[in-house]
């Protein structure tokens, strides 16, 4: 069996970065910038403006009582001039009128009979100078994955669209005669197919575009046909059919109709994982047990999708956490235990979220992290800390 590190190295060597496309800022959230370096073509803000509602004055005239000669609102194009002994009412965001060099907030001023009394004020107080956020010509380095602040920066620079990496198209194949679509009635020996929808959701979260190839019965012909149907995608992900059972055909189809790079990984859960190629497209065959499928997706497919987007790693937060009780595992394999992790009294603690069986979905849903326990240990030891891969909210 391959180690996790070796298997992931061989898998990521297959990654090919996707092309580029332009999208509107309204649909850019979560997308990956093709080039995070943006050169500002204008000053932000483009003009000096007021940071407060108040009065635009000359600092040299403070303290004193000044005659009000006009007002300026946000968006005003006509600006009255401030000269000696005068003031102009101004609202937040309004352009600073000529002659003024400072703003006195309403709370610090007293207006009466067309005049305003203001305290001593230094030049530049409550004034946002042109280019104080970003001067024109500045190279702005944004996060690769666009979130609301980065999108706001692009909009402030006058950009309506962003050039991003195309989402990798991930064909998803769910295998198994026993599977039934959720919402339909179960027949004898049937279970609902949770893998198809879960892997599609995981694909979207990782930045890919899921493309369902449907549920495939346990026949060699059907499995090969489904894999070949994914030839137009960037990656094919299957669940089930990679173990040693009589009706497990994914691995055999890869060996006979394509190529098999490796099979079986020394991890728990998820040992029977296969990676190969068919019709020029990489195939990652995940185990059929739902927890194994999602955990191995996290360990292999997620970093693969990110590599195709030009991103490194899996993008997950990692912390050192101490388990509150022993959590058993297979000593022959590196384990990824489903745990709840939280901060308490200056320490990060972990507790099993429930059963660790590869078919027990609820404990995975109730977990917020995977506790990484190396091979050679029979259980997570409460006397030491382990790396935890955080995928949920951390309190």
**Could you give a short account of the major beta sheet?**
6 strands, mixed
The CATH topology of the largest domain, please?
Molybdenum Cofactor Biosythetic Enzyme, Chain A
Tell how many strands the DSSP assignment holds. Answer: 28
The Rg value, from CA coordinates, equals 30 Å
How many structural domains are formed by the residues? 4
Q: What is the average of the pLDDT values?
A: 96
Based on helices, strands and strand pairing, what is the structural class? Answer: alpha/beta
**What top-tier CATH class of the largest domain fits best?**
Alpha Beta
The largest sheet has its strands arranged as: 7-4-6-5-9-8
Proportion of beta-strand residues: 25-35%
Contiguous uncertain segments of 5+ residues: none
CA-based shape: elongated
Number of helices: 7
For CATH, the homologous superfamily of the largest domain is named as MoaB/Mog-like domain
Query: How far apart lie the N and C ends?
Result: 37 Å
Work out the helicity level.
10-25%
What is the name of the CATH architecture of the largest domain?
3-Layer(aba) Sandwich
